[in-house]
Amino acid sequence: MSSRVRKGKRRRAPREFGAVTEAGTFRIERLLPGPIERVWSYLTDPEKRRTWLASGHMDLRVGGRIELRFRFAELSSETPPPGKDTECDVNGRITHDDPPHLLSYTWGDGPEASEVAFRLSVRDADVLLVITHRRFGDRATRLSVASGWHAHLALLSDHLNGRGTRSFWATKIQTEAEYAQRLGAPEQ
Fold this sequence. Notes:
The chain is α+β, with helices and mostly antiparallel strands.
């Protein structure tokens, strides 16, 4: 019996590209090698998180502060394209903490902050990671969020699978063009 078949039902494999599931909400999935505690550590340990997303302190409790320190030059050995930031900082607050299954936090401070949730579930020897990013605005932001998560998850997958990491910026730029087609026409 296939590892993807259980009790007569076929499990749906994660799609490569994420999707806008409702206004202001983007969802993307990745099937990653387990165990679940290992994947969780790449979300919560600042040194591991910096290899695929951003470093920074995390007070891992509901209401705790999170600091994301993006240093794009550390993600891959390439120069950012013209007009792209080399680094940026995002602060927020933990909104859910259920190790090792759910972590969510605000992406920014104040009433305009968006929220990102990481949901982990065991799939045989693998872990399904579902990221849902909510409450972001216009089409340009939507494309940036989609291609950004796509590129960051490519790096996470490379690390967890023991592969050399691909180019962050090349992946982001390529997938941004693909998301521009997938996510529809510009808003009027």
